[in-house]
Amino acid sequence: MNLETSYMGIKLRNPLIVSSSGLTDSIDKIKAAAEYGAGAVVLKSIFEEQINYQSGMLTKGSDYPEASDYIAYYTKTHSLDNYLKLIRSAKESAGIPIIPSINCVSADDWINFARNIQSAGADALEVNMFFMPVDKELKPVMAEKLYFDLVEKLRETLDIPFAIKLGQRFTNLLYLIDQLYNRGVNGVVLFNRFFEPDIDVNSMNIIPASVFSNADDKRNVLRWIGMASAVNDRISISASTGVRTGDDIVKYLLAGADTVQVCSVLYSEGYEYISELLASLKSWMKSKNYKRVDEFRAMLNYRNFKDYKKYERAQFMKYFSAYE
Ligand SMILES: Cc1cc2nc3c(=O)[nH]c(=O)nc-3n(C[C@H](O)[C@H](O)[C@H](O)COP(=O)(O)O)c2cc1C
Q1: Which strand (E) or helix (H) includes residue 235?
Q2: Residue 180 CA to chain centroid, in angstroms?
Q3: Beta carbons within 8 Å of 227's beta carbon, 6+ residues apart
Q4: How far apart are CA 136 and CA 153, in angstroms?
Q5: What DSSP character marks residue 288?
Q6: Model pTM greater than 0.85?
Q7: What is the distance between the alpha carbons of residues 250 and 107, in angstroms, rounded to a whole number?
Q8: Among 137, 226, 146, 139, which residue's Cα sits nearest to residue 180?
Q9: Which residue among 130, 180, 238, 286 is least crowded, i.e. fewest CB within 10 A of its CB?
C-alpha cells in the first residue's frame, strides 16, 4: 500500500503532517514525529509579536537609546538564529520535509526573514497570516488587500513553495483562495485556530478559551475543503482542525485535502499515536481495496460527489424541522 502524497510539489511519504505548535519546537520532538511516521512537520511558528515583546521587555528602563537598539537587535537576531539552527538540524537528521512557519501581523521584516528560512534549507514555508479587523472604517476589500500585498512580496522573495494558513471567517473564502493562487501561493492550510476570549463571571475578567480542538470542530472545515478543492484543484490544500481518528484523516482526503495536519490529539495521545492514525488509514484503504491515496482523494468533493448540493446547504429547512 502506497500512502505517498504530493503537497505543494513536495513528495511526502504519507499525508499526515504534525502541525505548527509546541509539538515541533525542538529537534528531539521533530525526530519523534518522524520516527512515528509523520509525512512532514510544520515547525512552531516564529511570532512577530513574540520577538517584539522580548525586545521591548529587555530594553525597558534603559537610558541609552543606542544600547536599546543593540539589545533589540541582538534579541531578534538571537531568537531568529536559533530558529534557523533548528531548521538546519531538522533537515540533517529528521529525514522528512521540514516546513517552518511565520506568524505575521505586518509586512517588511518577516519577508526578509523568509529568505533566511529558505537559505537554511526549508522545503517550504507556512505563513500564518491574520489581520484582526478592528477598524470599522476599513472596507472588506481593503482588509483582503493586506493579504494580497503581503503574498505578492513573499512570492517575489521566495523560490521555495509556500502555503498560507487561513482563518475560517472570510466573506468569500473561495474567491480569496483563487486570488492567492493567482498571486503564486502554492497551498492553503484550512484552518488556523486562534486565541479566543472567554469571560470568567466570578473574577469578571477576560480569560483565554481552550486552545485545543474537539472532533466537532471538523465539520465546517470539511465543507470548505470539499468546496475549495473542487473550485481550484491547482492549489494544494492541507486540512487542519479536529482530527481525532484515522477516519477523520480519511474524511479530509475524501473531501479533497492533499495533506492532513494533526495537533491537539497528539497533545493528549503522544507522538506514538501518529503510527496508530496511519495504521487506521491503511486499514480503511484495505477495506475499500485502495492501494494509493490518489485513488480516492477528492472523490467526495463539491465537483465529484453526485449530490454535491449537500455542501451548499447551510439553512436547511427539512433538517431543522426534524427537531420539534
Ligand atoms: C498548543 C498549541 C500551539 C499552537 N501553536 C501554533 C503556532 O505556533 N502556529 C500556528 O500556525 N498554529 C499553532 N497552533 C494551531 C495548530 O497548528 C492547529 O492549526 C490547530 O490546533 C488545529 O488543529 P487541531 O485541531 O489538530 O489541534 C497551535 C495549537 C495548539 C493547540
Answers
A1: none
A2: 15
A3: 174, 301, 302, 311
A4: 26
A5: T
A6: yes
A7: 37
A8: 146
A9: 286
- pLDDT (tens digit per residue) in 270-282: 999 999 999 999 9
Query: Ligand 1 within 6 A of 24 CB?
Result: no
In DSSP terms, 98 is beta-bridged to 41
Cis preceding-peptide flag for 305 (omega within 30 of 0) = no
Pair 194, 210: CB distance under 8 Å: no
Ligand 1 pocket mutation, candidates 103, 193, 221, criterion most atoms within 8 A of CB: 193
Q: Strand, coil or helix: what is 261?
A: strand
Task: Record the cell numbers describing residue 281, joined without a space.
Answer: 488509514
Residue 7 is which amino acid? Y
Sign of the Cα pseudo-torsion (88, 243, 247, 221, in order): negative
In one-letter notation, the amino acid at residue 125 is L
Q: What digits encode the pLDDT tens for the residues 105-139?
A: 776 667 878 899 999 999 999 999 888 888 899 89
Cα 319 to its chain centre, rounded Å, is 32
Q: Residue 38: which H helix or E strand, with range? A: none
Q: Over the stretch 173-228, which tens digit does the pLDDT of each residue have?
A: 999 999 999 999 999 999 998 888 899 999 999 998 888 998 889 989 999 999 99
Tell the CATH topology of 5-321.
TIM Barrel (3.20.20)
Question: How is the chain split into domains, by residue range?
Answer: 5-321
**Residue of minimum CA distance from atom 31 in ligand 1:** 212
> By C-alpha distance, which of 14, 24, 1 is closest to 271?
24
